[in-house]
Amino acid sequence: MSLLTGIDHLLIEAPAGCEEAARAFYGSVLGLLEVRKPAALQKNGGAWFALPDGRQLHIGVTPDFQPRRKGHPAFRTSDLKAVEAHLSQHGIPFRPDEEAGVPRVFLQDPWGNRLEIVQGQHESQLLP
């Protein structure tokens, strides 16, 4: 029996003053809806977004911010070609890849953090 039941949210680090760029990129470009942060956390800056599956994406301000070049969230899509066209329309560079056995693209958010968007999902094969 697993003690964990799933993922509640992902947090992506960003520099102070990131809110406008977060809303433009994650809200306007990627189409996520912003959700209200708890009152006690609003003073910390950043922004929270709802993911279509009920989970959340948190953009959190961190001192001495350094972008994540390797560690990254991977979002799912059912139509990667549509995502690629949409990113191109917004002038956002991406790199297609199928090395892991599924179609996917890598891109960066406004602060240089690595993101992945995968069509379908990575298959899980449990070890014996």
Give the topology.
Layout (H helix, E strand, L loop, with lengths): L8 E6 L4 H11 L3 E3 L3 H4 L4 E4 L5 E6 L12 E4 L2 H10 L4 E4 L6 E5 L5 E6 L9
Parallel strand pairs: 1-4, 5-8
Antiparallel strand pairs: 2-3, 3-4, 6-7, 7-8
Outline the structure in words:
It is built from three helices and eight strands, in the order βαβαβββαβββ. With 128 residues, it is α/β, with parallel strands linked by helices. The chain has one domain (9-119): 2,3-Dihydroxybiphenyl 1,2-Dioxygenase, domain 1. The strands form two sheets. A four-stranded mixed β-sheet has the order 1-4-3-2, covered by helices on one side. The radius of gyration is 16 Å and the shape is globular. The relative contact order is 0.20.
